[in-house]
Predict the structure.
Amino acid sequence: LTKYAKHHVYGTDRRRHAAVILFDIKAAFDSVWHDGLIYKLNQLRLPQYIMNYLMSFLQNRIASIEIENNLSKPFILNSGTPQGSPLSPLLYIIYTADSMNGIPDHTEHGLFADDTALWTSSNTTTSLNIRLQQSIDAFESWCKSWKLKLQPTKTELLHFTVHPRRIFKNPINVKIEDTIIKPSESTRYLGIIIDKRLNWRSHIHHVESKIAGRISLLRFLNRTAYEPNDKIMLNIFKSIARTMIIYGYPILLTANDKIWERLQIMENKAIRAALGLPIYTSVEYIHKISNVTKIKEDATTLLQPYIQTATSNNDNVLKNNLEEIFNQL
């Protein structure tokens, strides 16, 4: 999505306009229609013993509702996959695997469990509206056919343009179930906050606000320990702070150096807090005694096995995108 938007909005061809819509499906896992899912599983020609197991897993599940100590009569669930089961996300992926078959060629998509996104581009906002609405209508029609319901009020729309403050004569807005969806300043997708300028400042601001509490916790643990163990404290740092800072690194590697400087500042503060060092301790010293590599160096190193995994999985699109990011570092 990021590569697409940057290419079409900021690339040499300057197509100027791109938009993405991020759908929210109401009670997605709870709405999976059992008969429809079994039909799709049969289409996969799975061995009969696996089909028997999956049908047993789905069917004849009984539930009841309790309100103010009054329990309803038990009833059989005809939809939904059990919450918490590792099978449920896989079954949902199978159920929605063909959801993009009717989408026009001018639109691309992203599917990750119940997170669904569509994006497209055009020379004008009018044409962009038409393209996006066509794709939305196709997806909405599929949802109705397979008994899933979109939630327009929780669906997000982003308009990427080289003139983010400009007021357009024909602004981007689309309809879902007669509800008008207008563009947002930013939205969250798979844990990353994407803004209409694609500069990642909103995401970094969010991480800074979240990491502050964890840095305070590291400082508290170090000060209250009778004899703080640096190895244990660094393991806690890596568990609760570094993972948050480096999350989404393949995408963040497309950001400019200022973004990475802010990420590095967060990491430096967290290491000092974990080791009980004063704020004036030099960056070189804290990384030397902690044996923790700087955040961008680590992200670059982590990207290489990610490329190898994409290669072994024959995922050429992901492989090419990651290699392009790596080659630009």
